[in-house]
Amino acid sequence: MNRRFDYSDVIAVLACIAIAVMSIISYLYTSRFGYEVCTGVFCAVVCLAPTVLKHYGVLRLPPIFVSVIMLAIFLHAYGVLLLSYDLIKYYDTMTHFISSVVVSMCVFYTLMCYQVYSHGAVSFTGAKMSLMIALIMLGFSAYWEVFEYIVDITTGTTMQYSPFDTLRDMLCNTSGTILVSVCAGIYTRKKPLKILVDSFELHPRLQRFIEDPFGEKDKQ
To answer: In the structure, what pLDDT confidence band is assigned to residue 31 with cuts at 50, 70 and 90?
Structure first.
């Protein structure tokens, strides 16, 4: 695996530094500390995940995907730390849409890897890929809204403003899902999946896990 520092690593490090600075500003100049600063620290650490995974030879994410991930994390952290969720109208709508695109891409890449390393046991090309992404994301979207509700009632936050806010979030999540699922279906019809999956440079152990996640071959 090529572990050299490239521009995707630069973007990740810059995003981490920016969020760390915002966390300090939020701690020093706002009256909300616990949830907001913890969120900022968590987001800053997560920004480094793609670089760490590449450095240790686990997998290599496409630079464009890393950039979208950093954008989603930065916007969420900015909204929490500097109160943009409260001050900017429809800020929550934008972050939900971008986050749903990121998660949908994660699902897409995971299904691609499973198809390639299953050696023909499953096939998710074309419309089947679009349908699988949509079904999985509908479940994720519902669970996320439940998670937001649980956080609100246990910590006193206001991520769920109203039933309308929940429905709007679900609509944004669905819009991002549709965008990725349609593009994924078109992509899998025109290009072989193995080329993109090979570019991930997955660690052999991770490849074996994807190929046989329940250890069925060892039982034979």
So the answer is: low
Distance CA 217, CA 215 (A): 6
- CA-to-CA separations, 149 to 2, 113, 153, 155, in angstroms, rounded: 42, 33, 6, 10
Residues 6+ apart with CB under 8 A from 56: none
Q: What is the pLDDT of residues 101-128, one digit of tens each?
A: 999 999 999 999 988 888 777 888 888 9
Distance from chain centroid for Cα 32: 26
CB 175 within 8 A of CB 138: no
d(CA 187, CA 179): 12
The interaxial angle of helices 63-81 and 91-117, nearest 10 deg, is 150
Cα-based angle 220, 210, 66 (whole degrees, multiple of 5): 175
What's the sign of the alpha-carbon dihedral 117, 186, 172, 134?
negative
Average pLDDT score, the chain: 86
Both tokens of residue 5?
């520092």
Rg (CA), the chain: 19
Burial annotation 131-169 (CB, 10 A radius, 16+ → b, else e): ebbbebbeebbeebbeebeeeeeeeebebbeeeebbebb
